[in-house]
Amino acid sequence: MYRVLVYPYNQGDSCLAEYRSMLEQYEIVSLVCLKGANENGKFAGVQKDTSAGILITENYEGEMDKCDAVLFLEYHFLEHKDTYIEKMGSALLKNKVIMLNQTIYDECQKLIGDSSNIVIFDNSLEMELRQQVYKKRLVQPDIPVAAVMSLGENCNKFEAQLELRKKFMEKGYKVLQFGTKDYCELFGFKKLPSFLMAEDLSIVNKIHMFNYYINREVLKDNYDVIVIGGAGGILPFDQYISNHFGEITFIISSALNIDINVICIYHNDQAKVEELKEFREYCKGKIGCFSDYFYMSDKQYRIPESHQIEYFQLDRQYCIKSIPEIKDDDIKFCHCLDEEKKSQMLDSIICELEENIELV
């Protein structure tokens, strides 16, 4: 069991604290934010009282003695590159394992050197898959596929993926899962393969490669269901915030027949059934599957005149008091803070798959 310090902690990765009971062979013991960050002195992973949470601090050196490993997050990395390098070096000198993604490693490798204590989170399969000889036709897995997509970033999408994973596993199903965070491996599943983001591959090739890759992974064990998180947003916000025009979600939905699609949306106390139905139809045309399940976040966004999108987390009590009433037989809706409705919606997903597709 590795005791892990997370740096730099921010609200966008609150799932590490809130879902820490789902971590496999890891325990989060320290959350360290950037110097002067608003999170300093607050608690993360709080359910009903602060005793259940983890105190966020900016005292990196003081917290390092508690851990065996440091997880470095790509949060304002380029702005604080020198600080990252300093803290990585300090951790390695104290014989701590450092865990980071490929981007951070590539930028810092020359200065931190090579070490057996460096763990890189990546699912890099480009060369392996490019060299494979596969037919230019799509083959559908013989187990159901559940996808989790969102309107944009910072929309509780990874939390929804974890909720689905927990529910399937509680029901005794074996899950083949691919997620949208670099540190998926800490929770026992893989991140999306990096070739999906490659700039030198056509969308057509990515679709065929992803289809081949998923089918190959299915054969490795007796899986019952596939759960895939779609990186990025499903559609542009405006002419400046494109969400990459929903490229990743388009590739996933083109490569695989999606049986269940959950859409994560931002908090909106004015949300109406008619609007969700319109979006449901949009998804049918855009990605080829109905999206009957909507998972509302406790976050919102704003786009100032600089056109640099800003995300923010809303007050918990405000969200709970302003959850919209969505009642319709065709739309399944829950808010991330409504545990009862969330459990009901997740049960509905399981029931739909069990009724329509035989899970072995």
Structure description:
The protein is of the alpha/beta class and 360 residues long. The protein has two domains: 2-121, NAD(P)-binding Rossmann-like Domain (Rossmann fold, 3-Layer(aba) Sandwich), CATH 3.40.50.720; 128-354, P-loop containing nucleotide triphosphate hydrolases (Rossmann fold, 3-Layer(aba) Sandwich). Helix content is 32%, strand content 20%. The protein has eleven helices and 16 strands. It has helices at residues 15-18, 60-64, 81-93, 102-112, 126-130, 157-170, 203-218, 247-255, 273-287, 316-321, 339-356; strands at 2-7, 26-32, 43-44, 54-57, 69-72, 97-101, 118-121, 145-150, 175-179, 190-191, 225-229, 260-265, 293-296, 299-302, 310-313, 332-335. It has a seven-stranded mixed β-sheet. The protein has a seven-stranded parallel β-sheet with strand order 10-9-11-8-12-13-16, covered by helices on one side. The protein has a two-stranded antiparallel sheet with strand order 14-15. Helix 6 crosses helix 11 (339-356). The radius of gyration is 21 Å and the shape is globular. The two termini are 32 Å apart. The mean pLDDT is 89.
